[in-house]
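Ticket #4471: structure output looks truncated?

Reporter: J.K.
Steps to reproduce: submitted the chain below (120 residues) through the standard prediction queue, then opened the result file.
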Amino acid sequence: MSRTQAEAPSNFPHWVALGSLAFVLWLFFSNTVPAFRERSALNALGADLAGLRSQYDAAIQEARLGLGPNAHFDLQALLVAIDQKGFTPYELCLAYPERTPPPAHHDEGEGVLPNPPEVR
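Returned output as attached by the reporter:
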């Protein structure tokens, strides 16, 4: 069964194929472009976290060796002193919570500072 000259070839299958191709390309790029952006953001976040971790590791190493700006603090002696009082660091923080200083009350004519908080 061959076509006769009277029948003109239809362009419908070509338009359907082109439309389907355009739809598939739109789906592909609409899903992959945000994924690439998210991936690059996650990579940047991972690099930031790795940098922070290396800084924290260096700070911990400095504290263990007694180097750096906080060399005058002896963390082991502090833990021993807390233990001698019969507390863990957590129990010590619960027993002696930090006090917030009272709001400064300052009259313009007076140069008097407020009373310091009491010490237990």
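Triage note (M.O.): checked the attachment and the full token line is present. Residues 14-68 form one domain.
Status: closed, working as intended.
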